[in-house]
Specification:
heterodimer; A: about 400 residues; three-stranded antiparallel β-sheet; 14 helices; B: alpha+beta; two-stranded antiparallel ribbon; extended
Amino acid sequence: MDWNKMLSKQVQDMPRSGIREFFDLATGSKDIISLGVGEPDFVTPWNIREAAISSLEKGHTTYTSNYGLESLRRAISKYVADFFHVEYDPLCEVLPTVGVSEAIDLALRCLLNPGDEVLYHEPCYVSYAPTVMMAYGTPKAVETSIDDLFALNPAKLEAAITPKTKVLMLNFPTNPTGSIAPRKTLEEIAAICVKHDLFVLTDEIYSELRYDAEEHTSIAALPGMKERTLLLHGFSKAFAMTGLRLGYACGPKELIEQMMKVHSYTMICPTITSQEAGIEALQNGTPAMREMRDSYHMRRDYIVGRFNDMGMDCHLPGGAFYTFPSIKRFGISSKEFALRLLQEEKVAAVPGTAFGACGEGYLRCCYATSFALLEQACDKMARFCESLRA
Amino acid sequence: MSPDVLLKLLETDARLSDQQIADRLGVSVSEVAAQRAALEKEGRIIGYQTIVNEDNRGVSAFIEVRCSPERGGGFDRLATRISRYDEVKSCYLISGGFDLLLLVEAKDLMGVARFVSEKLSSMDGVLSTSTHFRLKTYKNNGLLFVQEPSHERLHVIP
């Protein structure tokens, strides 16, 4: 068969994620210490697992409404009001999805016409640009840099806006840099969005995991923004529920209704098991979430200190569980650094370029791994840096 | 550094050195050492022990003890006397249908029986005892005894 002809040209033209390539290499190696993951090292707290088990025990194995369980939507609405200080009507402004990833896909498909431009800040999570492309939009990266601690610079954002720009995607705290957007920056970004009539998709999946003094602010909570913002959040990171695949979107009912339509044709609903576990997480998961957050906090401080000691300049990221140290002073590319680190010391970290070209010169190191392993990984990396200097 | 932060770390892993704790908390080694010494002196840290999975080693029993309180001292004097025996690993004053709950360990069943009949029951003030032998431990000191194979995470995830 002529697969070139058979397969969609758009999909064939889409590059493989840079991280996949590295994943294949790391999977072949044995005894590696991985700083390359993007998920908590905790198992889902027991009360949440127990809720999932109990749901199965009761024989809850059916479809739910395409809008998800009303009880889940009510719990989400309450949690979002308490945590983000934005009110959403659980009956028409909340949609539970299979992770934030599905919500992003739905939102872009519902917002974009061919040729519409979507701005997003780089380095960023690997799915943003491909998802925009699959929705027939044009992704446009706005680079961020260490000068702004990888927060989106409002002036750079405004300079990138064209008459075709329709949507701005935000992700603070950010994967892979761990950066946060201070409230003042968000206010400037919000003003630009209002001025240019942009719609905002804000992926705030790491919002509970903040270690700086400022309370997390969602752009959706700023004056005039709720009507032009879709707030995306989920359970994976804060409640260590990655494998349960549950997220949600909160936003204007006009958009939510269209998203539900696509969702009803493609996904139908997240598993009812996950939805019932999600209710338990929202209602009783906060103490466990805080314990996990405090543990990440301690590890962040440790690993950033060690990186700076070994000559990898590393800013103190305000959130998530990633550090983004610079390896520029060693004079080799991110990819070569990561490959040699894997081969010579069996430590896996992801080259910054996997998250966008401007990630060159950086490495993403996730500290969601046990303290004992972090200590070992840091010792090995220090030895590796020493060998590069020699 | 608050003493509770130090205690929390040590309760998870008592083998952490002062240096490791200092690294994790971002404080000086001398500060950790001083805090630890102060907690030991205050009696908040009683000791550092290894939790051994010893279901296959010796016999242990939980013993409920009813006893008569003394004027002035309540149960304290008798409880302290009972606690002095090497066989008694834990001793608690309990509310409810009995007064003291003991965890007793011995080489074999007869060892526990001898302790109860010869030492415990014959003490002045002990009214009655009820012995429950431990069959299996599932959890002790917050640690699960069932070893489940760890679920492998992927090495690289976006």
